[in-house]
Write a structure and sequence with these properties.
By secondary structure, this protein is mainly alpha-helical. It has one domain. It contains 5 helices and no strands.
């Protein structure tokens, strides 16, 4: 994770039209890492709403694979991690 200071020092308002918050930077990082620029708004939304540790686990899983469509593999792993996380929370609350 990057600090706010490092994000703001790298920010160029003429070329970085999508970045004004830290989660947007991470969302664009996801899109670049998965080579899926078409769905960058989805990744920015996920970076805003989903816990960062879950996103990083899914990203490392997708990048380490040899899949042709890393974006789809990332979304599958993200769904799987979310369901595991919700099962753990539900059993701990009982």
């Amino acid at each position: 994770m990057q600090s706010i200071k490092s994000v703001l020092t790298k920010f160029n308002p003429t070329t970085d039209k999508y970045v004004s918050r830290e989660f947007q930077t991470f969302g664009l990082h996801l899109a670049e890492s998965l080579n899926d620029y078409k769905h960058r708004s989805l990744y920015i939304k996920l970076a805003k709403t989903v816990h960062r540790s879950i996103l990083e686990q899914a990203l490392s899983f997708a990048i380490d694979s040899n899949a042709a469509n890393k974006g789809a593999l990332f979304m599958w792993k993200l769904k799987e991690l979310k369901s595991q996380n919700s099962k753990v929370k539900s059993t701990s609350q009982e």
